[in-house]
Design a protein that fits this description.
The chain is mainly α. Helices cover 76% and strands 0% of the residues.
Length: 268
């Protein structure tokens, strides 16, 4: 089977698992919170203060709680910095990888996108992916070390399986690019690969069949990447969505108290 056929087969399976998890752990919970809001409104419990039509808080709350994680910042500067490295590194590399895949691998078959295939656009995307990948790898390594050192304290706060999966995804991504550069030493954009490039130079000094290993490493990278995304809705990563919603439930005032009581009652 062609490796891209294998990858898209993985996408179908992983996407199905992801949607099932998102339905169970995100969509149904959103619907339950909306039902709580509606019931309280029907019973007149929200007359004492402003009623929110939906459980989604204001954009400022989403940015504060889901993106910048104010509660983590109040707990520890180190943990907050670790969160920022992982969050922004992951967000950037995911966005850049999508752009690079769409324009660099697919659209150029139908349109002339030389800017992204052999021009400055490809250099920009590769450099951005290397930088964001390095930032992500540093954040994940810090998270793993901290999780091991403070195992008892971090057990309920850090999803070790998810962090380890993403760490393997990032590392195998650099290894995949390094193997490609070993087979293509004259790549005109090798200078943009300031992590994978030196790694490829170091690996060339090791007597190993890198040409034969390139495909298995690529397959490993693709497999763990899809496994990571499929696992997301079943992990604590859902807190990125649930945190701002939770802030709308735990707001102060009589309406917030009623919502908390009703949610607790419904979950018991």
């Amino acid at each position: 089977m062609d490796k891209f056929a294998y990858f898209w087969s993985l996408i179908i399976v992983g996407g199905t698992v992801f949607l099932m998890g998102a339905y169970r752990n995100v969509f149904l919970k959103l619907c339950f919170i909306r039902w709580i809001n509606r019931k309280i409104r029907e019973e007149g419990g929200a007359k004492v203060e402003r009623l929110e039509n939906t459980p989604i808080p204001e954009p400022a709350t989403i940015v504060r709680e889901a993106v910048f994680q104010k509660r983590i910042r109040n707990r520890s500067v180190f943990l907050w910095l670790r969160h920022c490295l992982i969050f922004f590194g992951f967000t950037a590399i995911f966005a850049l990888d999508c752009i690079y895949t769409v324009f660099g691998h697919y659209f150029h078959h139908y349109f002339d996108y030389t800017y992204f295939t052999s021009g400055a656009g490809r250099a920009f995307l590769k450099a951005g992916m290397e930088l964001s990948g390095a930032v992500l790898l540093v954040g994940l390594t810090a998270a793993l070390v901290h999780r091991v050192v403070y195992a008892e304290r971090e057990r309920t706060l850090v999803n070790l399986n998810l962090v380890l999966l993403l760490w393997v995804v990032t590392l195998t991504g650099f290894l995949t690019e390094a193997c490609r550069l070993i087979g293509e030493p004259d790549d005109p954009f090798v200078d943009c690969s300031f992590v994978a490039g030196p790694l490829a130079s170091a690996l060339r000094g090791i007597d190993a069949p890198w040409h034969a290993l390139a495909t298995p490493i690529w397959i490993l990278h693709a497999t763990v990447t899809v496994a990571f995304f499929a696992y997301l809705p079943f992990s604590r990563f859902v807190h990125i969505i649930a945190a701002p919603i939770g802030r709308s439930i735990t707001q102060d005032g009589n309406y917030g108290r009623l919502k908390r009581e009703r949610v607790t009652e419904g979950l018991l």
